[in-house]
Amino acid sequence: MKKLSMTSQKIGFTAATALLAACLPLSAAAGTSGDYQGAMPNKGQYNVIFHLDAGGVPAIKKTLNNIENILHDPRLAGKLHVELIANSKGFDVYVKNNGFEDKLKHLQAEGVILAQCANTLKELHVDRNDLYPFISIVPSGMGEITIREAQGWAYIHPSAPPEQL
User: Fold this and answer.
1) Which fold has domain 46-164?
2) Is residue 143 predicted with pLDDT exceeding 70?
3) DSSP per-residue codes, 21-60
4) pLDDT tens digits, 101-113
5) What sign results for the dihedral spanned by CA atoms 29, 30, 35, 40?
6) CA-to-CA distance for 114 and 93, rounded, in angstroms?
7) Predicted TM-score (pTM) of this structure
8) What is the DSSP letter of 131?
């Protein structure tokens, strides 16, 4: 094993000390005293796409609750655009008579774009008429996510609740 010279050791120690010193103000600003109120918005507009690819009530509820929570974050009031893209088993969120119609209509009334992947409908043999009529169909869920991310949209993919993993 190669021995480090005293100079190399001192440079390493100095660099580590400088890095630690640079991080201390950041941790203090992050509210170590309990006064941190969260990140402050510095943009005029925020865009986020939620991805739902798991079916079942727990996964749907979790995703819709996440959307509701972000819509009611006071820091983002009047600055937020939201889209929900469903693909794979996530199409369950848009199936008629699933118990989510009122919630989806409410989210749409708040400006949320509700989109379904056409590829999923074809691959899983789902009839468009089995979905709520107010849902938009996009050619590809992955294409939608790719385009939105390239446009600068944040991507959120809530994990399925533990009982579904």
Assistant:
1) Hypothetical Protein Ychn; Chain: A, (3.40.1260)
2) yes
3) HHHHHHHHHTTTTS----PPP-SS-EEEEEEE---SHHHH
4) 999 999 999 999 9
5) positive
6) 10
7) 0.78
8) B
